[in-house]
Specification:
This protein is of the alpha/beta class. The chain is 40% helix and 26% strand. A hairpin with a 2-residue loop joins strand 4 and strand 5. It binds adenosine-5'-diphosphate (ADP). The site of adenosine-5'-diphosphate has 11 residues, from strand 2 and helix 1.
Length: 340
Amino acid sequence: MGNIIEIKKLQKNYGNIQAVKDISFSVESGEIFGLLGPNGAGKTTTIRCLTTLAQPDSGEIFVDGICGIKQPKLVRQKLGYVAQEVAIDKMLTGKELLELQADLYHIPKKIACTRIEQLLDLLDLQEYSDRKTGTYSGGIRKRLDLASGLLHQPQVLILDEPSVGLDIESRVIVWDFLRALKKAGTTVLITSHYLEEIDALADRLAIIDRGLVIAEGTPSSLKDRIGGDRITLRVKEFSPLSEAQSTKNQLENLSFVKEVIINEAQGNSLNLVVAPNSNSISAIEQTLKEIGLPLFSISQSRPSLDDVYLAATGRTLLDAEMEAVTKRDLKAEKKQAMKN
Ligand code: ADP
C-alpha cells in the first residue's frame, strides 16, 4: 500500500515561537497512525497545516498525491477532521446538527439520511439524537463530532486528542469505532499525549517533541529498540548532586545493566535499561547498599513508549506534561499581573 499522507520538512512559527521546527512523516493508506507527544510539542499545529487550516512557513504536504499548499480545497475533500474542542450550536439537536453539516458538504438528502442513521447507530448515539446538543456530556459531544467528520466519507480521518474529556464508556465506543473504520479501509491519524491510547490503537507512530520528530516506527519496534527491561529507582536524595553521576557510573559497571539515564526532571530518580529476566533488582539493591545510598523505591517493567520518549529526551512524558502545565500557569500569572 502506498502513502496517503506525506509531510516533508514542515516548519511553522507563531511570531518568535517555533511551533513546528522540522517535521516529516508519512502515513500509509489504511493504517492507524499516531502522533504522540506532550502538550506544546507541535501536534495540533502539524494537523492544522495538514488540514489546510494553517499556512506552513515551509515544507511540503501531500494527501493522496495532491499538494495541500497548491490545492487545499481538493485536499480538504479527502479529509475528515475532528478538532480537540469544537464550538457547536447548542440549540440544535444532534440529528439537526448532522443534517446541517451534510448540507454544507452538499450531500443529497436521501444519502445523508442513510449515512446519519448509520453513524448514529455505530456510535451508539440514537438515544441522544433528538436532544439539544447543549445537554450533551463531553463524551457524547465528541462522538457527535466524530459522526460529523465522517459524513462526507473521507479517505482519511484526523482526530486531535480524541480521548481528552472522554468518559470510559465513550472511550471504549470511540476506540472500537476507529478500529472498525480502519478495517473498512479508512486511514486514521490521531494525535495524543496519552501513550496508552497510541499504544493500543496505532499501527505506527511518530513521537514529536519541541517541534521535531524524535522517533518513528511501530509501537513494538520502538519498544524493542530500548533493548531490555526498564528499572526505575528513587533514592532519598543525591547529596551532593554529583552523587547521581557517580551512582550512574557504579551501576553501569553491573554486567546486566545496558544503560543508566539520570531523570532530568526528578533529581532523585534514575532509569536503567537491563537485560530482560535477570535477577537485577537484588543486585542493584546490593550495590546501593554498598555505596550507602538509601533506596526509596525500585520497580522493573517491560519497556513502554514512555521509555522510548525518555531515551530520546531525558524526560518522561509525564514530566514533560508537568513542564507544559507549569509554563502555561506562569504565562497566565504574568498576564494577570500585567492586567492588575
Ligand atoms: P500540541 O498540539 O502538541 O499541544 P501545539 O501545536 O498546539 O502543540 O503548540 C505548539 C507550540 O505553538 C506551543 O508552544 C503553543 O503555545 C504554540 N502555539 C500554538 N498555536 C499558537 C497560536 N495560534 N499562536 C501562538 N502560539 C501558538
